[in-house]
Specification:
Elements (H helix, E strand, L loop, with lengths): L3 H9 L5 E3 H8 L4 H16 L3 E2 L4 E3 L1 H6 L2 E8 L5 E5 L6 H6 L4 E3 L12 E9 L5 E10 L4 E9 L2 E6 L8 E3 L36 E3 L3 E2 L3 E3 L8 E9 L8 E10 L5 H9 L8 H9 L6 H6 L1 E2 L6 E4 L8 E7 L5 E8 L10 H9 L3 E2 L3 E3 L4 H7 L7 E11 L5 E12 L2 E4 H8 L3 H6 L4 H21 L9 E5 L5 E6 L4 H23 L6 E3 L5 H13 L11 E4 L2 H7 L9 E4 L6 H11 L5 H11 L4 E3 L23 H20 L20 H5 L23 H34 L6 E10 L2 E6 L5 E5 L8 E4 L4 E4 L5 E3 L3 E10 L4 E9 L7 H8 L1
Parallel strand pairs: 6-8, 17-24, 18-25
Antiparallel strand pairs: 1-3, 2-3, 4-5, 4-7, 5-6, 7-8, 9-10, 9-15, 10-11, 12-14, 13-22, 15-16, 19-20, 20-23, 21-22, 23-24, 26-27, 28-31, 29-30, 32-33, 32-38, 33-34, 35-36, 36-37, 38-39
């Protein structure tokens, strides 16, 4: 079978670690469909950076390209025309990795026909003694923007589009006749049986003849597709000719979105800017609409029946996709029984189907303040797969027996069927637990169950605290709208005990499933979180020390090295080759973070230090290899509880269902039991494992290597899915964050000149950032706007200090600011200092205060 490893091994055998497509076809003996499979694999490997495309049909190992000073990386353009290439670490040779200290500068005349975001091949022309590098782009390897969203303007010979993303610096020429979408471009997938009324102009007349409706969760936004005048409208453009040093890119309009300030257009812009798939192909919609809502009797008979239990879903008020339901009861032996039931999406989305291909492409649902782009069509996500109340739904169930310490002493995983008793909200459950009389009367049959849930959640939370699990509990912004859909405020999200109990139950189920699959030596996907880099820990320690805090890691060991190139350059000159400081590994545990979090709780500096601690950690990601979860202090963790909105969860469901089917065939005569008699006890970890479960994973005697693991999905395909899903998750997070930041800026446009209380959250050489206390909005106070003195930035203390007055602006300082201006292009807010807290001083003035 053709695989990544087969291709890599074959290329590695070549003299120059490079091979052409035809050469690979010939030497690997590929025919027909295998040739197309090879081409697809090569493109994916280039996109991941596993291979470098050095010619139109020739591929090389990254190290081979690096020997020629050629490296792969992502191009990030600046609005002034120059760019930087962020190198892919895999494409760097050891010598080049030691010499480079940052990104590679690309002058405007050396960009070639590359555009912002492209994966490019760079020829490094110069590496300075300080590690900064310059280069030229040889050619793009993979384009980031097949389409670009921007503002249309008429020109002398047709039109042009100015990209909304300021990093795409060139205007796109639209030749005459290409200004309007073709009929096939405007076809949208509209939910069956749903009709939207046409929007009307200010005068009340219909604005358009045809409508395009996106299939999204929330209020579907009807958008015009025919306009008399395109000037100033937001359009999506397909690039037909890439730029050259002498010519702008050319394209054709494929979609007209409306005016930039129209309601809902900001979401449409974000969707297209980040290239989020949002129209389901006809084949996927057909499969979704053909899914059977009625469960066959044979399917019910083979599943474990939970329909007689008072199981409930608990979600937010606006949620429409319910993929988890819970129930807790006490067992006769005094232990808790926690039942977590997850929608059996894998029953309806089968491997290789059109639905599966689209779900894998999307990777995750994307949630915006007023609507969402779902991973699955509405027929599944809000209906057949959603655990709606009082209807039968298929589930995968994780039933756990837990002792008084919250440790799992036994568990049972099974395919089941439930009938949810109630669709509960976090607000309603919290009201019951807070003693609200009306809520307790309304949900009287469930009050005792909710109280038991609360008790178990507290037990589980204490268990995680003992283990060292980190919980920053940082608030998030919530955009509030009025009855007309206009934004009226930005508030901080409220988290109550109902949120926490669901979080604890889902964490337990995820950990239980990960443990089970790993103990069976089944290849699976894991949610991993590696320990932080030594450099980031050191940077945090420096800042924390200014507040009088420390993680307790001690002095950071540093290893000094010299490159051969620097030694050769210094030879015979009498100068010493420069030393490169490489931080060594540092002993860091989540318990250290946890203890510091407890110390700063309730302190004025809690917000800023929690944010900085979070930034010092790595991003969690998906992997086919279990490397543990640092923040949760868990040796095995996966994502199992959200298959409606996350593709990795769906994959874990498929793997688990395959395991359960094999178990059934082997033990068909065994009667089901609420907690499996032969279940493995997930015992108490040792003190060493509690302190550092990721640095020394628990291994079992005779545990196979990753490539030897069994299961329905091969380890190489799992690797691809993990990489794709991690990228999709980051893309969704970036899109969600950018839209919210844009809405904040729009919200503040009418508040220019108003003053607010704020907190300094970051200090840089060009100014300091302030977050408004009540509005969750951040803006910059530029250094050059401080006119009462000459201020300089002190990097060692991260403070801005006045030379004459000795006034200080530092992290965590409370301050009064005025909204000075809004940058409509960069969509950034600028503040001006209005009044301050009592001024801190430096040097002699501070000493005098101490003496007095």
């Amino acid at each position: 079978m053709l695989s990544d490893s087969t291709i890599l091994k074959h290329i590695a055998k070549q003299a120059k670690h490079a091979a052409g497509f035809k050469q690979l076809v010939r030497e690997l003996g590929l025919r027909g469909e295998e040739r197309r499979e090879l081409d697809s694999l090569l493109q994916k490997m280039v996109a991941r950076g596993t291979l470098i495309s050095v010619d139109s049909d020739r591929y090389a190992l990254p190290a081979a390209a690096a020997d020629k000073n050629l490296i792969a990386g992502r191009l990030s353009m600046h609005r002034d025309g120059f760019g930087f290439v962020i190198p892919d670490a895999k494409s760097l040779s050891p010598s080049l990795k030691a010499r480079l200290t940052g990104d590679i500068f690309i002058a405007p005349n050396l960009i070639g026909n590359a555009m912002h975001g492209d994966l490019v091949l760079v020829d490094i022309s110069n590496v300075r003694p300080d590690g900064r590098a310059e280069g030229r782009i040889v050619r793009p390897v993979m384009r980031a923007h097949p389409t670009v969203v921007g503002i249309f303007h008429y020109g002398s010979r047709g039109g042009y589009v100015r990209p909304i993303d300021s990093k795409i610096t060139q205007e796109i020429v639209i030749p005459a006749g290409m200004e309007r979408p073709e009929a096939s471009d405007t076809v949208a997938s509209q939910p069956r049986g749903r009709r939207q009324d046409a929007p009307r102009t200010a005068g009340g007349t219909p604005a358009v003849q045809k409508m395009s409706v996106d299939r999204v969760l929330g209020d579907e936004v009807a958008r015009p597709t025919e306009w008399d005048d395109l000037e100033g409208l937001v359009v999506d453009v397909e690039i037909t000719d890439w730029p050259s040093p002498t010519q702008n890119p050319r394209g054709r309009v494929v979609e007209i979105l409306g005016r930039e300030d129209d309601f809902g257009v900001d979401v449409e812009i974000t969707i297209r800017k980040f290239h989020l798939p949002h129209h389901f192909p006809a084949a996927a919609l057909e499969e979704a609409q053909d899914a059977l809502a009625i469960i066959p009797a044979r399917e019910l008979e083979r599943r474990r029946d939970f329909r007689g239990l008072p199981i409930v879903t608990i979600d937010g008020e606006t949620a429409r996709d319910f993929d988890d339901a819970v129930y807790v009861r006490m067992l006769p032996n005094g232990n808790f029984e926690l039942q977590v039931h997850i929608a059996d999406v894998a029953q309806y989305v089968t491997p290789g189907s059109a639905l599966d291909q689209e779900a894998r492409l999307r990777g995750t649902s994307v949630y915006f303040p007023d609507r969402a782009v779902p991973m699955l069509p509405l027929e599944l996500s809000t209906d057949i797969c959603s655990l709606r109340p009082q209807v039968e739904r298929l589930v995968l169930s994780c039933v756990m027996e837990m002792d008084h310490r919250g440790e799992i002493v036994g568990y049972d995983l099974s395919e089941g069927v439930i009938r949810s008793m109630e669709r509960m909200t976090y607000t309603a459950v919290n009201a019951v637990l807070e003693g609200d009389a009306a809520a307790r009367e309304r949900y009287a049959p469930l009050v005792a169950t909710f109280e038991l849930m609360r008790d178990l959640a507290l037990v589980l939370n204490r268990k995680r605290e003992r283990r060292g699990s980190i919980d920053f509990d940082l608030p998030e912004p919530v955009i509030e709208f009025d009855e007309l859909g206009m934004m009226k405020s930005i508030a901080r999200s409220e988290r109550n005990i109902a949120h926490r109990l669901i979080e604890e139950f889902m964490l337990s189920a995820n950990e239980c499933v990960a443990h089970d699959l790993e103990s069976r030596h089944v290849a699976s996907l894991y949610r991993i979180h590696e320990k932080p880099d030594a450099k980031r820990v050191y940077d945090f320690e420096v800042i924390a020390a200014t507040f009088g805090y420390s993680l307790g890691v001690g002095p950071l060991p540093v290893h000094r090295v010299q490159t051969k190139t620097d030694r050769r350059a210094a030879y015979g000159t009498g100068k010493r080759a420069r030393d490169i400081e490489v931080p060594k590994d540092v002993h860091i545990t989540p318990r250290m973070y946890q203890k510091l979090t407890e110390k700063i709780a309730g302190k004025p500096e809690e917000r800023i230090l929690s944010y900085l601690m979070l930034r010092s950690l790595k991003q969690a990601r998906y992997s086919e290899e279990n490397l543990g979860h640092f923040a949760l202090a868990a040796t095995s963790y996966t994502h199992f509880t959200s298959p409606i909105r996350r593709y990795p969860d769906l994959i874990v469901h498929r793997i688990l269902k395959d395991v359960l089917r094999k178990d059934r065939s082997q033990h068909s005569s065994q009667n089901p039991h609420p907690v499996a008699k032969n279940a493995t006890r997930m015992g108490h970890p040792s003190d060493e494992e509690q302190a550092s479960p990721w640095s020394k994973r628990r291994t079992r005697a005779g545990a196979p290597a990753p490539h030897e693991l069994g299961g329905p999905i091969g380890i190489e395909e799992l690797h691809e899915i993990a990489e794709e899903s991690s990228r999709a998750e980051r893309r969704a997070a970036d899109a969600e964050r950018e839209l919210i930041e844009g809405k904040k800026v729009k919200f503040m446009q009418d508040r220019v000149g108003e003053d607010f209380d704020g907190l300094i959250t970051s200090v840089t050489k060009f100014g300091f950032f302030v977050e408004l206390t009540d509005l969750f909005v951040e803006g910059l106070v530029p250094l050059n706007s401080l006119t009462d003195d000459r201020y300089t930035y002190h990097e060692n203390t991260r403070e801005i200090i006045g030379q004459r007055s000795r006034k200080i602006y530092s992290l965590g300082q409370k301050i009064r600011v005025l909204v000075d201006r809004i940058d409509p292009v960069e969509k950034k807010i600028q503040f001006a200092v209005l009044e301050e807290e009592p001024v801190r001083t430096k040097g002699k003035d501070r000493k005098r205060k101490k003496q007095s």
